[in-house]
Amino acid sequence: MPRAASHPALPLDAEEFLTWLRVEQGRSANTLIAYRGDLRSYVEWLADRGRDLTGVTEADVTDYVGFLRAQGRAPSSVKRALVAVRAFHRFSALEGLTTLDPSADVALPKVPRGVPKALSEDEIEALIDAVQGSDPLARRDRAILEVLYGTGLRISELVGLSLADVDLVDGLIRAFGKGSKERLVPLGRCAATALEEWLAAGGRPEVEPERWARRGDAEALFLNTRGGRLSRQGAWGIVRRHGDRAGLGERLTPHVLRHSCATHMLDHGADIRAVQELLGHASISTTQIYTMVSTERLWSVYRAAHPRAVAPNR
User: Fold this and answer.
1) Last residue of a domain, one of 94, 112, 140
2) 290 tagged catalytic
3) Which of these is catalytic: 27, 154, 204, 229?
4) Which of 51, 178, 241, 297 is the catalytic position?
5) Reduced to 3 states, what is the DSSP secondary structure of residue 186?
């Protein structure tokens, strides 16, 4: 049996950088995994050229970007790799591990912005209506869809919710976003009603096991069929299953519901700063993507409805 390839350990400086990201910056486990992989590829590329992290020059960093592009990597993938490299070198310079930051003047590649494909409001209605019945799992699935669309939560934020994070009296949810940043999110009428039905007799209590298998499962808002905390993959499958029933197919993902929440709010006149706060975006530029969607919708409606929007056939 062939032996699995093993990766050499990262240099101590790189490990210190990753520890700093985790402890001081509060980066998520997935982010750390991505940074570790990008740095490992960078270190291996340098080693193939007889270089190490202490003697990197600006030309080396530029050549590495060219190497990634020559591999046929997408601009977004090249940008992510360079972000990791630049963050490491900036950390090394600030901590005095090196005298200069060789990546400071290497520009990040431009990545074309894709416009999110939001569902229409009618399609949202069809999706919710695709959940049939009032058994415990139907109540759970309806609550998941209503909360995802009604609050714009990320799927990881949704499955991380505990019972104590939901305030049905004041209509608020406490969500923990990227970097464990906490925010309060309003809970609309439809989402609140669906949650009340899920938490009432005949809903979540019917799924609770006689004995909890893991610590923390008893506090989970959403449970799987075995009475454990619903996983990200489990919630993803629930969304796709009902999307298939509603005829949405591969167009629907949990993130599309987040897109749709933001787009529909802007369509109905919401302030962009309020939408930024709702979604937990660190930068307003991220939220501004949705204004592009709303503008396109506005033009689409205008062209279809206004008699002088399109020149008549001559």
Assistant:
1) 94
2) yes
3) 154
4) 178
5) strand
Residue 218 belongs to domain spanning: 121-303
State whether 145 and 34 are in the same domain. no
Catalytic residue flag (residue 306): no
- Tell me how many helices (H) and strands (E) the chain has: 14, 3
Q: Is 268 a catalytic residue?
A: no
Catalytic (active site) residue 79 = no
Active site residue 281: yes
Q: Which residues contact 3 (CB under 8 A, 6 or more apart)?
A: none
Q: Are residues 131 and 260 in the same domain?
A: yes
Catalytic option among 36, 140, 264, 281: 281
Catalytic residue among 80, 140, 258, 259: 258
The pLDDT of residue 123 = 94
- Residue 125: what pLDDT? 94
Annotated catalytic residue, options 51, 174, 255, 297: 255
Domain membership of residue 229 (yes or no) is yes
Q: Give catalytic status of residue 178 as yes or no.
A: yes
Which DSSP helix (H) or strand (E) runs through 162?
none
* Mean pLDDT taken over the chain: 86
Question: pLDDT tens for residues 214-247?
Answer: 888 999 999 999 999 999 999 999 999 999 999 9
Q: How many CB atoms lie within 10 A of CB 245?
A: 14
Q: What is the pTM for the complete model shown? A: 0.61
Q: List the CATH number of the domain containing 268.
A: 1.10.443.10
Q: Which residues of 201-229 are buried (b: 16+ CB within 10 A; e: fewer)?
A: eebbeebeeeeeeeeebbebbbbbeebbb
Q: Does residue 168 share a domain with residue 34? A: no
- Same domain? For 125 and 203 the reply is yes
Q: Are residues 183 and 88 in the same domain?
A: no
Tally the domains of the chain: 2
Mark whether 259 and 202 lie in a shared domain: yes
